[in-house]
Amino acid sequence: MDGFVPVSENLSMMGSHNIFGTNSQISENDTSSQHTAEVDGSSQINRCMAALEHSTIKVPYEVLNRKFRTAQKVLEREVSAVAACTSEMQAALSGSPMPRPQQLTQMIRGVMSQVSSLKRKAREAVAGEVECARAVRRRIEHLDQAGKGSAAARAAWESTRIDRLITDFLLREGCYRTAKKLVELRNIKSLTNLGLFENAYEVEQSLERRDVSKCLAWCHENKTKLKKLNSSLEFNIRIQEFIDMIKRNERMSAVWHARKYFSAQDCKQLPSIPQCMALLAFPADTKIPEYQVLLSDSRWQDLIQQFRDENLRLYHLSLQATFTVVVQAGLSALKTPQCYKSNKESFNPDCPVCVPTLNSLAKELPYAHCSQSRLVCFLSGETMNENNLPLMLPNGYVYGSNALEAQAAANNGEVFCPRSETKFQLSDAQKVFVM
Amino acid sequence: MATDPRIPVRNEIDKVLDKFSTYETTTLSSLDNVEAKLKELLELVENAMPMDDDSSNLDEALDSEESEAPLLSSEQVSNIMATLAEVKSVSSSVSAKHRELHSFVSKIGKCIDKNFETSYDFMTHQTAFLRDETRPRLYEIICNHLCREGLQSTADQLMEDSNMNINSEFMTKFRDVNAIVVALRNGDLQPAMKWALEHSEKLKEKTSSLEFKLHRLAFISLVAGGAQNVTAAIEYARDHFTPFIPNHQSAIQHVMGSLVFMRTGLQGTPYSGLLQTSQWDDLIRTFTKDACTIMGLSMQCPLAVCISAGCTALPVLLNINQALTGSQVHNMWSAKEELPIEIALGKNNYYHSIFSCPIMRQQSTESNPPMRLICGHVISKDALTKLTNANNKRSQSPPRVKCPYCPVEQTPQEPQQIIF
Question: Where is the RING-Gid-type domain (chain A) (predicted)?
Fold first, then answer.
């Protein structure tokens, strides 16, 4: 565990921003749950589950499915081996001459060893499949913990959820090592899909080094599924190899390569072939834009991105990370016009949308919808209502009566407007009625 | 009432586990039976063989006995064939029964797809949220989050992995704050005191109680040290408490009272509360709050707050998206200025005032600010314009506006723009 101790604890939310450091003992001691999502009603939890956790469960299921298919193939292979030597023995027994005892014992031992091999492989396969099924169940069991237990337990579950979302995002972005570190430090290996992306990471790294062998191996491994998805990845790799040969001026090899790999493609891929073949006629430093594009190094990045997308599709994962979706939804739900005022006077450092980085990210997102006014005192963060009447100072700025009265009491009836940096008398403040 | 999506999936999984267990106990164990039978067969054949040490002689002997009666009776042969047939059928059932399990396995997948949301298509925008220019910002936010969570090395790894120019201003600021907090957790007041001295003016501006609390805790540590610290404690109080008397008089009086019990110790006295670790926790909270305020940082991680809000908002949005499908106005995400539905995030997430005009039923914006009529009632500027125009139609000169809530009238120039 890192030496740094977390400064902000999830448990105690400090309440809204408090500029003047007025008596905030109340908000500091308020440990009542601030997360409305999981606390009120299991219906809310159910909706949350359905909305967010599809990939959490689906991925281990896909692993189970793959394991099943491989197991089925193994079993069928073993069964046909048993059938073969059994048939052989049956044929020998019904033919003439009758086999000698030694041959018989040999054949029986042969059948026995095949049967025992079948037995062993079958048990192994089932053990593997059961373990996969249990892994799916464990994920559900983790989800079952949502909203249960003490406030600390609930906060820990939500903190884990954030870690899961971030890990998934990082893995999809190719930041495998970061994801691995996070998973290890937080001990959430069984809840994330690290293993799935480990192989992908190796392929990506090899592509970064312009080495296509691992990617081709991956394509071969997943041939049937990729075909079903109409994947053009392998073809694009062959094209890239062709282009690289031209770059190295190995034009003869390029021609052989093309003859070997380009003729067997289906109609969909055909349009790109003539253009690539034409590349043979041009030097590697050609200035013609259409061919410069083909020769550009950025094609490697495109290959990596295509590989990433196909890997996701292979496991039936959505192309958008849940993390980005949740962040957008959250920003939108928090976004108010006050966060985007041109003079930034309503800047509240506790408001996530006011934080400069998030502010620019949320610029194009919809605002939150609000049907009823809700007023917050800029000085204290308290709600302004009948217990804390909103008062307007002569310059139009409104603050809560509690905060203003406290100031006036300490300063001979004088109050200070922080946004206009002007002093006023409390007696000059006028009441404001908001329906 | 939304149904729990976890239950049906769990049921399907349990079904599959059950099926696999049955498969193991019936089909696979039938293989054991078959193995046993084969063993019997082997013994049978071996017993039927003539016992002879010299195997080469045996071959010759057998060869010469070609025309002799066969080693095995026809009954034995048919037994062997029967066993072999059983071997075949049992082993083929191993793969056949396994294949049957597939429908149960794939049911799990179908159940998952049915009960959990698979796509977020509604959240499409003309410009993608995650694109080359926004990526570094998103990574920065994650970095900062990791930093706040005490995962400094992971944040560094991300900066390395991402190959991007990530602004680490926050991380540097936060590192300093964190170092002081770590010291406080170890009972070391010095770094905090040094920081408080450096920022003394700003702390005073914000009427913060941090400096007093630091000195108080130092004083208490002396008192708790026992009677030998009496002089030191009193001197400390004299040197450091004086500037705080105007604001913290009663607190000072209370803590000075603890001197009485220095010899016997504070346990069991009215001052035992001063020794508790909660004093330190409170100090850490105060320091964190003040440090964050002065540096313009938020106290809670903004990413965590955002994600929490998103987890509440997303189900609501998915729900409304379903309801909107089929209607003309489908794309709620891009074109609209506001979300089509209100999302209740709870009081703790009210960071700004929102004024919703009761007449126009719209949120106030910079171009449509709230206006306070001279009677004190507030309506939006657009509403004011609307009411003015409506009144003008009655050709009154000069134009007067009547408040919608009370009989007070005024000219259109009198209402004042307010800022909440």
Answer: 351-420
pLDDT reported for residue B397? 66
Residues facing A430 on adjacent strands: A392
**Ramachandran angles phi, psi of A147, nearest 5°:** 70, 10
**pLDDT of B71:** 66
Write down the pLDDT at residue A23.
31
Q: Which residues contact B316 (CB under 8 A, 6 or more apart)?
A: A47, B341, B343
Residue A204 structure tokens: 């990506």
Low-confidence ranges of chain B (pLDDT < 70): 1, 49-71, 126, 326-331, 334-336, 392-397
What pLDDT shows up at residue B98?
Answer: 94
How high is the pLDDT of residue A36? 43
Provide the residue ranges of all domains of chain A, joining segments of one domain with +. Answer: 53-144, 194-319, 323-375, 377-431
- The residues near B268 (Cβ < 8 Å, ≥ 6 apart) are none
- DSSP code of residue A433: B
Chain B residue whose CA is closest to A104: B45
Q: How many CB atoms lie within 10 A of CB B130?
A: 17
The 3-state secondary structure of chain B, one letter per residue: CCCCCHHHHHHHHHHHHHHHHHHHHHHHHHHHHHHHHHHHHHHHHHHHCCCCCCHHHHHHHHHHCCCCCCCCCHHHHHHHHHHHHHHHHHHHHHHHHHHHHHHHHHHHHHHHHHHCCCCCCCCCCCCCCCCCCCHHHHHHHHHHHHHHCCCHHHHHHHHHHHCCCCCCHHHHHHHHHHHHHHHHHCCCCHHHHHHHHHCHHHHHHCCCCHHHHHHHHHHHHHHHCCHHHHHHHHHHHHHHCHHHHHHHHHHHHHHHHHHHHCCCCCCCCCCHHHHCHHHHHHHHHHHHHHHHHHCCCCCCCHHHHHHHHHHHHHHHHHHHHHHHCCCCCCCCCCCCCEEEEECCCCHHHCCCCECECCCCCCECCCCCCEEECCCCEEEEHHHHHHHHHHHHCCCCCCCCEECCCCCCEECCCCCEECEC
What pLDDT is attached to residue A238? 87
Kindly indicate whether the ipTM for this predicted assembly is greater than 0.85, answering yes or no: no
The distance from CA B181 to its chain's CA centroid, rounded to whole angstroms, is: 24
Among residues A57, A74, A186, A183, the alpha carbon closest in space to that of A121 is found at A74
Q: Do A16 and B350 touch (CB under 8 A)?
A: yes
Residues of chain A with pLDDT under 50: 1-39, 267
Q: How far is B114 from chain A (nearest CA, A)?
A: 10
B338-342/A390-392 β-pairing = unpaired
Residues of chain A in contact with residue B251, where contact means CB-CB under 8 angstroms, are none
Q: Give the integer Cα–Cα distance in Å for B203 and B195.
A: 11
Could you tell me if B315 and A47 are in contact, meaning their C-beta atoms sit under 8 angstroms apart?
yes
Q: What is the pLDDT of residue B70?
A: 57
Tell me the two tokens of residue A104: 């018989």
Which residues are registered as beta bridge partners of B378? B372
* Long-range contacts of A264-273, Cβ-Cβ distance < 8 Å, separation of 24 or more: A265/A235, A268/A230, A268/A232, A269/A232, A269/A235, A272/A239
Alpha-carbon gap: B259 to the closest alpha carbon of chain A (Å): 26
* Chain A environment of B310 (Cβ under 8 Å): 325-331, 333
Q: What is the pLDDT of residue A229?
A: 86
Determine how β-strand A414-417 pairs with β-strand A398-400.
Answer: unpaired
State phi, psi for A400 to the nearest 5 degrees.
-75, 145
Q: Which two tokens stand for residue A241?
A: 């190899």
Contact A35, B58 (CB under 8 A): no
Place of tokens 């409390």: A426
* B147-203 residue pLDDT tens: 888 788 898 899 898 888 777 788 888 888 888 888 888 888 889 899 988 888 888
Q: Is A50 in contact with B91 (Cβ distance < 8 A)?
A: no
Query: Is there a contact between A179 and A170 (Cβ–Cβ < 8 Å)?
Result: yes
